[in-house]
Amino acid sequence: MSGKIDEILRESLVVINLGLKGFADNLEQQQVEVVQVDWVPPAGGDQEMIDLLKDLM
Amino acid sequence: MASGFIVRKNRYYDSVFLMGVDRRLSQLPGVRQTAVLMASENNKRFLAEMGIRGAELDAAQADDLIVAVIADRPKLVEQVLGNLLDEALMSLETSTRVSDLRTLEEGLRAAPTANLAVLTIPGEYVDREAQAALESGLNLFIFSSNVPLEAERKLKQFASERKLLVMGPDCGTSILNGVGVGFANVVRRGSIGVIGSSGTGLQEFTCQIHNAGHGISQAIGTGSHDLSDEIGGITTFMALDALESDPPSEVIAIIGKPPGSETLKRLVSRLEASSKPIVACLLGRPADEGATRGNVHWVRTIDAAVQAAIQLPTLQANPLGDLLSAEQLELAKDLRTARTSNQRYLRGLFAGGTFCYQSQLILAEAGLTVYSNAPLEKEFKLTDPNRSQEHTLIDMGDEVFTLGRPHPMIDGTLRRQRVLAEYSDPSVAVLLLDFILGFNAAMDPVGEILEAIIEGKRRRQKLTGQPTVVASICGTEGDAQDLSLQSKLLREAGVCLFNSNAKAAAFCSELLKDA
Asked: Is the pLDDT of residue A1 over 50?
């Protein structure tokens, strides 16, 4: 196995945390570089609108 | 009695923050029940079951906050939904860290060298975000559950073509290069690598390895559905390849619930062809304890997997009967004779799904018929998960209990209520519990439940026969919750405490002999 998996098993983790802030806090306590994203549902959570946006992209 | 609700538009909060608000409001004198939720479709159904309905609720969207309350007086309902809610929101908002970033794309701009995305967002949005993360070359740890199997399969196939690892959905734990992600414990590094489709199974294994003086090289969670035939073990097979070429991993253990039949066949051939020694504990797989084929040593309990991983290659079979010491067997005998004649049943309330499952296996082996919301066989599924019958074991992490609420490892509210309910049933002889420490878990898991045990005991004083409370703790001295203190609290309350779930379940089967 090579490539991107090796990065997380052999090198330092660099994490983007989408959601619960506690998960980012716990990673920071372990000296991990973390970027916290205070995620919100796209298009106000309107599934029809999300599908529409997906089709447009 | 009065009730009411309020909708705050465009106020999105995560489930742990909402739990904090809910706790503050529900503790106010005169308040009977509260719900503090985002207006997802699932949560709206949950509110309807509570008897909370209205046109404004129907129109609310997933980024709208809903607060519902049932209280003694209409005036109190009004106060809770007004000033008291504002105070709770304000005080929690000032004590929580805030980020300016709202999307994955913004996150990627802030961390262009990122190699892992951790997702704890509601399940219905995982597909879209996970796909975008993979397209940006990120490995994934998906804690979220309720992701359709078809979406999981597509994500994992896409990832495997790009040599990216997808841990999850419904992945509780991983330890990657010494870093605990999700519900992980503080364990020393060492030569044992482990792959698991069960989060609490991985926690139990890694804690026991640490507590026995050994260490973990990597622990890779695959998500609870990875070994189903729909997914075909895509992550498990990739993780096996990765650990085989990971120099520190000298022994590889695999822990999980039984795979789908097709996946099991492929997995067995893959394991038997492994270049490193393998310990396999696929709970519920037909018993062949101690059997070694090729490089694979098969065991039935997590405890036996730990022993095998440590002792390889000179392992002796470790039958279930050896789980308990002579003193423990003697204690079980004494407690058995102290019981009243109408105390006949066991009730187990678990935060860890794997502990519920492993306990059922051990009790079944002792000849006991056990009902559950997550049973070994369909015929023993409880008709109502909120009501126990005869011997009952409950997985409190099941969707019916986590809809609109954090996992019981974070929030003990429902388990506390259920403990009290079981105390009021005079036929209960034994109460079996688990306590799980580590990152992201509740800071005082024992304290949360102990108050219900003490209250239950007090109420039961009028009846004859207190239930015997049996428990196990999964954790290490390195965990922030303080393993020694948590253990001490349980022992002082008269709880029979074990350092593994398998031992606690075996002790229960001894207690119930001739029941």
From this structure: no
pLDDT digits (tens, 9 = 90+) for B165-200: 999 999 999 999 999 999 999 999 999 999 999 899
* Chain B nearest-CA residue for A1: B242
The CA distance from B406 to B409, in Å, is 8
C-alpha distance from B418 to closest chain A C-alpha (Å)? 27
Query: By the 8 A CB rule, do B13 and B85 touch?
Result: no
Q: Do A16 and B10 touch (CB under 8 A)?
A: no
Closest CB from A8, A22, A42 relative to B116: A8
Query: What are the residues facing A16 on neighbouring strands?
Result: A35, B117
Q: A44 in contact with B at a CB cutoff of 8 Å?
A: yes
Q: Quick one: pLDDT band at residue B243, thresholds 50, 70, 90?
A: very high
Residue A3 has pLDDT above 70, yes or no: no
Q: Give start and end residues of each alpha helix (H) in B289-325.
A: 302-311
B401 half-sphere exposure, CB direction, 13 A CA radius: 28
Question: CB distance B120–A27 less than 8 Å?
Answer: no
Q: Please name the residue ranges forming H helices in B40-125.
A: 41-50, 55-59, 74-79, 85-95, 104-110
For chain B, say whether A18 makes contact (Cβ under 8 Å). Answer: yes
In chain A the first and final C-alpha atoms are separated, in Å, by 33
Instruction: Report the length, in residues, of chain A.
Output: 57
pLDDT of residue B513: 87
Interface confidence (ipTM) of the complex: 0.88
Distances (CA, A) of B44 to B50, B55, B63, B179, B502: 10, 12, 13, 37, 39
Kindly list the structural domains of chain B, giving each domain's residue range(s) and its CATH number in brackets, ordered by start. 2-95 (3.30.70.60), 104-320 (3.40.50.261), 323-511 (3.40.50.261)
Three-state SS sequence of B336-360: HHCCCCCCCEEEEEECCHHHHHHHH
Q: What six digits make up the tokens of B154?
A: 């597509």
Domain boundaries, chain A: 4-56
Q: Do B143 and A7 touch (CB under 8 A)?
A: no
Say how far apart CA B249 and CA B244 lie, in whole Å.
7
Q: Cβ contacts (< 8 Å) between A48 and chain B: which residues?
A: none
Q: Which one of B19, B64, B125, B185 would you mutate to disrupt binding with A, by most A Cβ within 10 Å of its Cβ?
A: B125
Q: Which of B106, B120, B177 sits opposite A9 (nearest CB)?
A: B177
DSSP state of B482: -
Chain A CB contacts of B62 under 8 Å are 41, 44-46
The conformational region for residue B111 under phi > 0 = left, psi -120 to 50 = alpha, else beta, is: beta
Mean pLDDT of B146-165: 96
Please answer whether residues B192 and B215 qualify as being in contact, where contact means their C-beta atoms are separated by less than 8 angstroms.
Answer: yes
Q: Which residues of chain A lie closer than 8 angstroms to B179, CB-CB?
A: 13, 27, 30, 32
By Cβ distance, the residue of A19, A22, A36 closest to B121 is A19
Q: Chain A residues with CB inside 8 Å of B110's CB? A: 35
Q: What does the DSSP 8-state code read for residue B289?
A: T
A46 pLDDT above the threshold of 90: no
